Amino acid sequence: MRILQISDFHLRGDGKLSFRVVDTPKCLETAAKHLLSLTQKPDMMVVTGDLADSGDEHAYHMLYDALSPLNIPIYAVPGNHDRRDRMRSILKGWCPENEETAPWLCYAVEEDEVRFLMMDSMSPGSHSGHVPETCAAWLEKELARRPGVPTLLFMHHPPFITGMGAMDEPYENVERLRAILEKAPWVRLCCGHMHRPIFTQWAGVTAVTAPAASMQIDLDFSPEGGDTFVMEAPGYLLHDWREGAWNTHVCQIYGTPTYAGPYRFLDSVNPTEE
Question: Residue 179, by phi and psi: left (phi above 0), alpha (psi -120 to 50) or beta?
Answer without folding.
Answer: alpha
